[in-house]
């Protein structure tokens, strides 16, 4: 409760400062709503105004830090207090999840192997019964009972020996679910780029790393000669703070 009260006091203080600063900025914003520089004197006045604005901005930032720094420090201490047990619990849960996933894979593999074994056994039994039926049909023919022989052979052709159903021994637990998680792994970046060039892979599969491009442009300047990339130079007026 004390922390909430303190936070409320800080919020009121911040609101008062923001309202005072907002009024000053509104005046400046109205003054410089449209900036036109037609002569050297206008340029000088604009430069002086820019320096003053930068100083005001810096002062506001310092005031902001003065207010929020204690709050941020307190927040860091609170997060540092609760982060270790949360991370430890997450790590334990991950170990359990990994073990459960391994068990599921092992049970499913064992069930698959058992289904294959039983399918082979069923096929062998079906072949044994077919041969036995053929022997019976032959004996029927030898005894002159061709009709019975034909019936035996017809039944043998449609006879099947189903393999027992084998399910993986994985308990169903309420609150626990298994889901497929798919992700992509780039193992050959050159092949991926070639796929994009050929149109087999959408261009959206990759995106330029602007920080790398900017670093190359700053280093090579106008000499940058990368395919599909050009160096762009824009003059920017900045305040050095020495006015």
Any overview of this molecule?
By secondary structure, the protein is mainly α. Among the domains are: 35-158; 189-223, no CATH class. It has five helices and no strands. The protein has helices at residues 2-31, 40-142, 146-158, 189-198, 210-220. Helix 1 packs across helix 2 (40-142) and helix 2 packs antiparallel against helix 3 (146-158). The longest helix has 103 residues, at 40-142. The mean pLDDT is 86.
What is the terminal-to-terminal distance? Answer: 47 Å
Radius of gyration: 40 Å
| Low-confidence blocks of residues | none
Major beta sheet, specifics? none
Structural class: mainly alpha
Number of strands: 0
Mean pLDDT: 86
Tertiary shape: elongated
Order of helices and strands: HHHHH
> Helical content, roughly?
55-70%
* Binned strand content: under 5%
Secondary structure tally, helices: 5
Summarize the structure.
The protein has 243 residues and is mainly alpha-helical. It has helices spanning 2-31, 40-142, 146-158, 189-198, 210-220.
Indicate the topology.
Layout: H1 2-31, H2 40-142, H3 146-158, H4 189-198, H5 210-220
Helix pairs in contact: 1-2, 2-3
Descriptors:
single chain; 243 residues; mainly alpha; elongated
